[in-house]
Each structure stands twice: as C-alpha cells, then as structure tokens.
Amino acid sequence: MKKVRILFFLVVIMVNLGYGKIEGNTGLYTLTTNDTTLVITGNNIWVREYPKTGEVVFTLNDGAVCRVLEKGEEQIIRGNKDFWYKIEHSGKIGWVFGSQTSIKQNADFKNFEPFLEYFLQTSFFGKKIDSLIHFRAPMIIDFIHKDIGFYRLYNPGAACVLNQSYDNYSAIMPKVDIPVFFAEELPKEGFCEKSPGPDGVYYKRIDSLPRYLEMDEVFEMEKIDIPSNYKDGLKVKVNVVDKKWIIKTMYFIVADNKWWLVVIDDCDCSA
After folding, report:
1. CA–CA distance, 184 with 237 (Å, rounded to integer)
2. Do 160 and 178 meet the contact criterion of CB atoms below 8 Å apart?
3. Residue 251: which of 262, 239, 240 has the closest Cα?
4. Which residues contact 247 (CB under 8 A, 6 or more apart)?
5. How far apart are CA 222 and CA 159, in angstroms?
6. What is the mean pLDDT of the chain?
C-alpha cells in the first residue's frame, strides 16, 4: 500500500508539471499545455483571430515571448509547411503560423517539395528566371541567402565556369500550372539526348554541389565557396524536364532552417 501511495504521489507531481499532457511534437521539442512558450522570429508578424483566414487581431515583433495555448492543424503557406499555434501575449490571444516562430518545423527533405513547388510557381514557370536573378527582383531575392549568395555555372566555350552576373540566357520558362514531381529521382538523359522518361520536376538529395573550372590561374576544378557554417547543410539537385529535355538544373541548400537557391547550372553538353 505504501508503494502505491508513493507512485500515485509521483504521478500527481508529473501531471502538475505538465508531463502526460502532450499535444504534439513540433520537430524541435514536445509541446505541453502548461506554460509552453514560443518566440516570434521576424517583425510585424500577423496574429489572427483564427487560423488561415481569420482577421489580424494584433502584430508582434522579433523576440516577443508568447505562451502556447493550443496546437492547431498543419498548413503550407509560401512554401513553408508548419502548424498553427494559439498564443497569448500581454493578455491578447490569437493564432500565429509556426514558421514565424522559434518552434518552426525543421527544414528537411520531407518538406522540400512544398517549398520547391512554391518557388517554381512564383519565380520559374512562365518567368525569365535568369533576368529576375540578375536584376535582384524581390520575388527571387527571398530565395537567396545573404551570406551564401547565388552562383551560376555556364560554358562560354568548352569548359564549364563560374559567373555570378551572367544573364545572356533569358528565355521564358514554360508555364506549368500543376507540375509533376519525382522525388529522389533524376532523369535518364535529357542533357545531350532526349530523356525517355516523362516530363516533370525531378529532385534528389546529393552530397556536394557541382564543381567548376577555375581558369584565372590554376586551371583546376574548384568547389563552390560556401561559408563553413553552412557547407554541411542538406543539399538537393533539381532537374526540370520539358519536351524530353532538361531545361534547367538548380541546386538548393538548407541554411538557418530554411531552403535556399544557391546554384543554377546552365552548362550544356559541350562542356
């Protein structure tokens, strides 16, 4: 009987501390109903009356600490897949999207496709993506990390070289309303010969970014210069195939818990 009383006492303590009331896992740590907090990341972040379409009831700025009252449903907004959270701040209550908080979901391979689809629809399909990058247009600058930068590979002759300002190629990419995605696949052929597979967007995890020929002095193959604190980030190669040909090859990397465009490879098969 004494052991039973001790066990019951421990259970009561655990419940009062918030254990045993788990509502879900954010990917960073487990939420409980008792005084769990999050921190706002970014300025002028909207807090809504209810998720998705609710009226904006107040805004919060970077560093604001909020108490989490409830974890809502998952949604994809601007390529970010995350949960809604009901929060309380200074006596005011509302809903904030997780990607704008400290408990946002980790950027990983499982949420790459929603990001990629958003990127393609806003900055690729039906657009002159090369011109957008050259002129640093707002819609594309959102996908380029300020400390990593953007790189382009192309071959003005027989060798594939690096050039960050090349903008001679400015064809409008085809308009695709509902792209077909092929995860963990790259097309067979499509570079110098037509691909036997279907058109669509192929993407696959890779270990390293492509190399280029350094022609100024050493004439050796060099690595893309990624800052050391980002070089180990998850990397993905993307091939867009249209009418059996690869029309664009792009590389993305995870940095600061987000996906970023880092390389466009426009080298053709003569390189």
Report:
1. 9
2. no
3. 262
4. 173, 174, 240, 241
5. 13
6. 82
